[in-house]
Amino acid sequence: MLLSHAFGLFTHPGQEWASIRKEHESPMKLYVAYVLALAAIAPICAYISTAHFGWTIGNERLIKLTEISAIQLSVLTYVAMLVGVFALGYAINWMAKTYGAKEEHVPSNGVALAAYSCTPMFLAGFALLYPVPWFNAFVFLAAAAYSAWLMYDGLPIVMGIEKERAVMYGGALLTVALVILVTTRGGSVILWNLGVGPVFISG
């Protein structure tokens, strides 16, 4: 089962990457069985915490989002995560030949590497149930660091390249990931200006 890889990547990542490389699951099946499920964690938790729990900054009063606003932002976040994983997977396959990958002809490898590398980020979404900004920032920063390490660790195994080339390949992919992140943030600003921004209420 694809979801079993989520736990294996934390306990024995090397063996798990080797198993993932052998599977060659289709990108569609990988998305439906893995990405769609795990990517939903953060939006659902964010909706619950922002619409029902609320948060405070310093000694200020409790702040929440309206139900409609929380749903809209959660759905947009979910879509952005799905697009981001696909874009990163596409970039992995696109740059594969440049770095001497032997598996670039398998279209599922790039998506698989992107999806499974993002597992810590997906699971970090549970932290949003405790809506404290500094706590959420710390959890997601740690998850991002482990995701980056997973990608570096998995590149030579899944894409069939030398370990030395994984450093440059991984650096290029992290740059792509940052571009995707900045793009989504820019898109958020545009959508907010179009009226799909957060609507706050007092708790």
TrEMBL record:
Ranges annotated as spanning the membrane: 31-55, 75-96, 108-128, 134-155, 167-192
Superkingdom of origin organism: Bacteria
Pfam families referenced in this protein's UniProt entry, alphabetically: Yip1
The keyword Membrane is annotated on this UniProt entry: yes
Sequence ranges assigned to domain Yip1 in this UniProt record: 7-182
GO CC annotations on file: membrane
Keyword terms, alphabetized: Membrane, Transmembrane, Transmembrane helix
Membrane disposition: Multi-pass membrane protein
Presence of keyword Cell membrane: no
Compartments, as annotated in UniProt: Membrane
Protein's recorded name: Inner membrane protein YohC
Organism: Marinobacter litoralis
